[in-house]
Amino acid sequence: MRLTAPFSLLLMTALLQACGGGDDPALRTLDGQTPLVIGHRGASGERPEHTLESYRLAIEQGADFIEPDLVLTQDGAMVARHEPMLDSTTDVASKFPASRMRTKNVDGVPTTAYFASDFTLAELKTLRAVQPRASRPQGFNGLYEIPTIEEIITLAKTEGARLGRTIGIYPEIKHSTFHAVEAGFGANTFEDKLLTLLHLAYGNTASAPVYIQSFEVANLQYLNGRTQLRLIQLIDADDVKDDGSLSLVAPYRQPYDFVVRGDVRTFADLLTPGGLDFVKTYADGIGPWKPYLVRTVNDGVDRNGDGVVDGRDRRVEGSTGVVEAAHARGLRVHPYTFRDDAGIYGFKDGRAEIDYFFKLGVDGLFTDFPATGVAARNALR
Ligand SMILES: [Ca+2]
């Protein structure tokens, strides 16, 4: 049946709205492309973080990138752990005596722990991952190994080929200064190792499905002179205050290489117009903690009426302008960390929070629950 013009228009509008696309404005990402869902430590809300099984679940759920944090072993292997310490995410204490613990300076904080850099890869392979958050599933503890970056790249490529889509990797160089000085590897050894491996696996090109991230600055500047792979400056803070401003307390106040060099700039200083101009000289984007992008205020009102005033009840005051200022300079914006079960500021749940950030125009985001991110991302299409 041929439809009259007004009727077909109505039908099309109805169909578009049924698909969720009718009222969406154009995407406000830097390149107009759909934002990326980055599986933060894999699907770490559901599996012990930084295991092949956590990354595999993130891929199954539709994540575009998987995110391994990297630390070095005694024999120089790159393995996935969020900290150079092994205590909270593995069963190391049940497998090695306390005499293997050491006290080291981790970004200015004296820390006594089992350090990955005091164990060989063969020793680390005898460990099994555990879930560090008591509120998350404990049933996978003791099952999974600590993976190397080589194993993670193989997983991403194998799964990508099987699924017919590109699975990117988003490695973070953890504690560059710690590895150079305290663990004794020397300046830029970590960076050189990672670049050599990534260039071999993906080539030296900005179109590779790779982002390298760091909270430090000098190592990203060093990398910028040696690779076309894309670089992301992470921007940390200690806490968010009631008025929405960021609390900057060491060791979350400044990039640690700034501390060592006597550079007084804070993380927040890197997001001012001048700070973003500086970041643009060596990086392709920023990875800020999310309260830097959306201002929320704790005004004591129990907005969701559950009898408790917490982060979810905060009043959302809108963009801080950082996304817009970064985009104006051609910098991508990938905020962290979105969690269905923790750290939600100003929204009833994790999905509503992600929806808001996607509408704001972020180019991707790190989430412990990639399925939630993928559902929100698909609703934009
Ligand atoms: Ca409440």
TrEMBL record:
Keywords per UniProt: Glycerol metabolism, Hydrolase, Signal
Residues annotated as signal peptide: 1-18
Record domain GP-PDE: where: 35-377
GO biological process: glycerol metabolic process; lipid metabolic process
Catalytic reactions on record: a sn-glycero-3-phosphodiester + H2O = an alcohol + sn-glycerol 3-phosphate + H(+)
CDD domains for this protein: GDPD_ScGlpQ1_like (cd08602)
EC number in record: 3.1.4.46
Any one GO molecular-function label of the UniProt entry: glycerophosphodiester phosphodiesterase activity
Membrane spanning stretches: none
InterPro entries: GP_PDE_dom, PLC-like_Pdiesterase_TIM-brl
Entry-linked Pfam families: GDPD
SUPFAM superfamilies in the record: PLC-like phosphodiesterases (SSF51695)
Recorded family membership: Belongs to the glycerophosphoryl diester phosphodiesterase family.
Protein name, per record: glycerophosphodiester phosphodiesterase
Source organism of the structure: Aquariibacter albus
